[in-house]
Amino acid sequence: MATESASVEERGRHREGREGVGAGRGFGRLLVITGAAGLLASWVITIDKFKLLEDPSFTPGCSLNPVVSCGNIMKSEQAAVFGFPNPMLGLVTYGMVIAIGAGLLAGARYRRWFWLGLNAGALFGVGFCTWLQYQSLYNINALCLWCSLAWAATIVLFCYVTVHNVRHRVIRVPEGLRSGLLEFHWMPPVLWIGVIGMLILTRWWDFWTS
C-alpha cells in the first residue's frame, strides 16, 4: 500500500509538472486582496508624492502628528532608493499579484518556474519592506500608515505564497517541517506583524503614553 501511495503521488507530481500547479479559490482571493491592499497604498502615496512635488508645503492626509507623518517619509532619501518614488514599484508589482490571483480564480495553472519566480519576487518585496521598516523607525523617525498597510500585505503575501509552494512541493522541505507549516500556516504572519507592532509601540512609547 505504501508503494502504491508513493506511486500515485509521483504520478501526481509528473502531471503537475506537465500541466502546472493551480490553487484553491481561497488562495486566489488572498492574492487579489493583498495585491489590492498594496496597490491602494502605492496609489495613494504616489498621488500625494505628485502633490508634494507641485507644492512643497502640501501636507498629506495621513500626516496626523510628529510620529505618524507620511510627509516626512516622502521627503526622505529612502523614499526613492532606486532613483524613482518607491510606490511606483508597488503600482507594478501589486498589480501583477492581482492579475495572478484573478488568473487562479479563473482556473489558471502555472508551471513550477512561475511559482518559484513569484516566491522570489515576494521574498524581495518582504526584504525591501523590512529595510524600509528599519529606516522608518530608526533613521527617518516617522511612520506612514499607508506604508504600514503595504508592509502587512506583503508579509501575508510572502508567507502564503511560501505555504502554497511547500504544500505542492514546488519548494521541497523536510516532511516534518512541511506538516508543521501546513498545520500552523497562520502563525508566521501573525507573529511577524505582531513583532513589528511591538517595535512601533516601544520605539515611540513615550509619545503614545503622553
Can you give keywords for this protein?
210 residues, mainly alpha, de novo design (two linked rop proteins), 9 helices, 74% helix, Vitamin K epoxide reductase family protein
List the helices and strands and how they pair.
Elements lengths: L1 H18 L5 H30 L15 H5 L11 H20 L6 H29 L4 H23 L7 H9 L3 H17 L1 H5 L1
Helix pairs in contact: 2-4, 2-6, 5-6, 6-8
Organism: Streptomyces achmelvichensis
Protein name: Vitamin K epoxide reductase family protein
> Helical proportion?
over 70%
The number of distinct helices, counting runs of at least 4 residues, comes to 9
Element pattern in H and E: HHHHHHHHH
Average of pLDDT? 91
Radius of gyration in whole Å, from Cα?
20 Å
State the end-to-end CA separation: 67 Å
Give the tally of structural domains: 1
SS-derived structural category: mainly alpha
| CATH architectural group | Up-down Bundle
CATH superfamily: VKOR domain
The number of E-state strands comes to 0
Shape: globular
Percent range for β-strand residues: under 5%
CATH topology name, in short, is de novo design (two linked rop proteins)
The stretches of 5 or more residues where confidence is low (pLDDT under 50) are: 4-8
Q: How would a textbook summarize the main sheet?
A: none
CATH class: Mainly Alpha
Protein name: Vitamin K epoxide reductase family protein
